[in-house]
Amino acid sequence: MDSSSDKEKEIRTDSPGASSRDGLTILHVGDVFLDGPVGRLRRDTKEHRREELREAFDAFLQRVDEEQADVVVFSGNLIDGRYAGDGTLTFLLRAFEKRPNCHFVIAPGPFDPYNETSIYRSRRFPRNVHVFLEEVLGTYAFPELPLTVYGWGYHSDTCTHAPLSGLRKTAGDRFALVCGYTRLGSDKGEAPVDEEALAAFGAHYAALSGGIHDGFHRVGESVYAYSGSFEGRDDIKATEQSGGYIRISAARCDGGWSVDARRIPLDTYTYAAERLDVSHLATVEEVRERLKTRISKCGYGAKTVLRVVLCGSVPLHAHFEGVENWDYGVYSLWVDDRTVPTDEFGSLLREMTARGELYRYFYPKMTQGTEEECARAARAFRIGYAALLGEDFAKY
């Protein structure tokens, strides 16, 4: 396993010799989270889902073979370092060793940082695996390819170093690619990079992780894109797009390089999100019927991981715990209750009791602000209301 870092103001690499290659095929993937737990699934599906993620990764490696990829770049969170162990290492070793003609470049991210327990410290990785070990910008250049990859790696769950600040790529006719985990413009310890720094650096393509894939963007002479999620996950962002990887086809053109980048879907499951208005409903049974109708209308089935947000104004005593405990015909269901108990607001606002006083305090908070803020206020009110009645409020 190779490592490299360079702190010069202009990144310089020893020339590996001219390559006669006029084209490159590069696959860009990130946020794989191998061996990480998959939340909000039924208990009996979680371990099964982790195994399926490995199977999906194997399917991706078949694409590597079919595409005859020259290089695969992992732009952060290839594994979940909190759970990865010898089994994960053995799995990856076998995968990489089977493909000696392809280079695998890994940029550790916040979930798989290069720390004391990182499996990236193993000396068993084959020579075609290259890991960025420093938060400062490093480089890899391949003698048989007209390609230089620049990148950085996290040492913990945050990275405050700005890896591209004041730097520019090496002059020459090689294809230049930047690889790493960042959220452009963020100042929250996510390897600060912005579009101005990308443009000044001048790479042909920047392979990033840390955000939803929202298309391909050009800054100066550079194209950049977020990998998005390799496979849908259980968080809010993951339901906004399908999983997959990016294929970059680079070709020499008029003394420079042309870039054709496309996102290729690779989902085993469909990850979907629905908002369900349950205004004025009061029971679990009523919500289940409405949800079953929505699922049937949308055609969700056994390969669907579904997130449902319940919204609307409901009666004071409405409670929807257990809505998800039903066979809807989907693989897994997560229900997020964001309803607010405002159906009877008129009488409660006038009621001169402890209940009325509690309601008057929370009513503005439940009806003003963002949906999340209103939902939090509703949850706080329901906890206080249950406590007033001497009921169990742990369910909230």
Description:
The two termini are about 50 Å apart. Mean pLDDT is about 85; it is low at about 5-20, about 40-45 and about 235-240. β7, α3 and β8 form a beta-alpha-beta unit. α6 (about 355-365) runs antiparallel to α7. This protein is elongated. Helices cover about 25% and strands about 20% of the residues. It has a 6-stranded mixed β-sheet with strand order 4-3-2-1-11-12, covered by helices on one side. The longest helix has 25 residues, at about 45-65. It has 7 helices and 15 strands. By secondary structure, it is α/β, with parallel strands linked by helices.
Short structural summary:
This protein is α/β, with parallel strands linked by helices and 396 residues long.
Tell me the layout of helices and strands.
Elements: E1 23-29, H1 43-67, E2 71-74, H2 86-97, E3 103-106, E4 129-131, E5 138-141, E6 147-151, E7 175-181, H3 195-201, E8 205-209, E9 217-219, E10 222-226, E11 244-253, E12 256-265, E13 270-277, H4 284-298, E14 304-311, E15 332-337, H5 345-350, H6 354-367, H7 371-388
Parallel strand pairs: 1-2, 2-3, 3-4, 6-7, 7-8, 8-10, 13-14, 14-15
Antiparallel strand pairs: 1-11, 5-6, 9-10, 11-12
Oligomeric state of this protein? single chain
Structural class: alpha/beta
**Overall average pLDDT:** 87
Number of strands: 15
- Helical segment tally? 7
The backbone outline, from C-alpha atoms, is: elongated
> What's the SSE pattern?
EHEHEEEEEHEEEEEEHEEHHH
Low-confidence stretches: 4-18, 39-43, 234-240
Helical content band: 10-25%
Strand content: 15-25%
Largest sheet: 6 strands, mixed
